[in-house]
Amino acid sequence: MTEHVPLITGDHLRRLLGPRQAVRVVTDALRGGLDPAADPARTVVPTAHGHLLLMPAESGARTGVKVVTVAPDNPAHGRPRIQGFYLLFDARTLSPVALIDGIALTTLRTPAVSVAAVLPLLRRARDPLRVAVFGAGPQGRGHVDTLLDTLSGHRRLAEVTYLVRDPRRAGVPGHGAVPVTVAASGGERATRAVSRADVVVCATTAREPLFDSALLHDRAVVIAVGSHEPGAREVDGALTGRAHVVVDDVATALREAGDVVQAIGEGNLDAARLIPMRRIVTDPASVDLDRPVLFKSTGMSWQDLVVATAAHERLGG
Q1: Is 110-300 CATH 3.30.2290.10?
Q2: How many contiguous H segments (helices) and E segments (strands) does the chain have?
Q3: Degrees (nearest 5) of the Cα angle 243, 110, 172?
Q4: Which InterPro entries match (predicted)?
């Protein structure tokens, strides 16, 4: 009966699964044989004031769907731009087993996926990491928290620089003892932060490249998660020509990832060079650190499902 279906709020979800555990869930799913290529495509349904995103998936004993609304005008009225829920079902009976805060789930799983994709590469060295983050919202902060949690005992974060349009409005996110600064994304401090960074996180709503990739050193890792449509990008085509380009799934990237689609159209990237993250997770040695690494994520339904399933299992489901 639906009256017995538990509601997992954002606070409850964060108590059930921390960043390190979420990374492990994603990693274990891929190592256990989950094939992202089998994921149903995301469905976008236009509405009068925005659109709906429908993201269904099935794996093992559970199936589920995330239903998210995107209302671009909401922030001007003090309301969230993105809202939604995750519905988790028993795969055999299709009975509902949990209702989960969809935005909290996205905030947890997105950096977990990013870090799972690059963690084997980051753990090859032990020198302190300098991190530059474009965007100081939940995703930008979540990526830093996830890096901190998963690299604990392996590599420390030497500094974090958040790069934003207006530093006066951003505040200074706290990450324990890690030195944190906030700077304008278009200024000299941003240029210096990117050129020094070992990890650059792009978590914005930008539709054009955020920085000149020529600034990056040869062992830099770039994580781009802000866009999931062909007409938007956060990195320039030159980076895709220079870097190992890792994606959630090749077919999905060719359909949805503007950073990839536009780079191919410009002649900077050959689709045959795209590396599915599953290969990095299962065979880290297959990628040499002889050039920068770009992980471009659009977000996929299986990622929500495996994290939601793990949270429900910790609830005792």
Answers
A1: no
A2: 11, 14
A3: 90
A4: NAD(P)-bd_dom_sf (IPR036291), ODC_Mu_crystall (IPR003462), ODC_N (IPR023401)
Residues 219/195, Cβ–Cβ less than 8 Å: no
Q: Quick check: helix, strand or coil at residue 213?
A: helix
As a whole number of angstroms, the distance between CA 79 and CA 279 comes to: 40
For the chain, domain boundaries: 2-106+302-315, 110-300
Matching fold, domains 2-106+302-315 and 110-300: no
DSSP string, 118-155: HHHHHTT--SPEEEEEE--SHHHHHHHHHHHHHHTTT-
What is the spatial distance between Cα 105 and Cα 203, in angstroms, rounded to a whole number? 16
Residue with tokens 């659109």: 51
Which top CATH class is 2-106+302-315? alpha beta
Which secondary structure element, helix H or strand E, spans residue 236, and what is its range?
none
> Nearest 5 degrees, angle CA 299-CA 137-CA 224?
40
Per-position pLDDT tens, the chain of length 317: 456 899 999 999 999 999 999 999 999 999 999 999 999 988 999 999 999 999 999 998 999 999 999 998 998 898 988 899 999 999 999 999 999 999 999 999 999 999 999 999 999 989 999 999 999 999 999 999 999 999 999 999 999 999 998 887 777 778 888 999 999 998 899 999 999 999 999 999 899 999 999 999 999 999 999 988 899 999 999 999 999 999 999 999 999 999 999 999 999 999 999 999 999 999 988 888 889 999 999 999 999 999 999 999 998 76
Q: Are 232 and 207 in contact (CB under 8 A)?
A: yes
Residue with token string 């055999």: 92
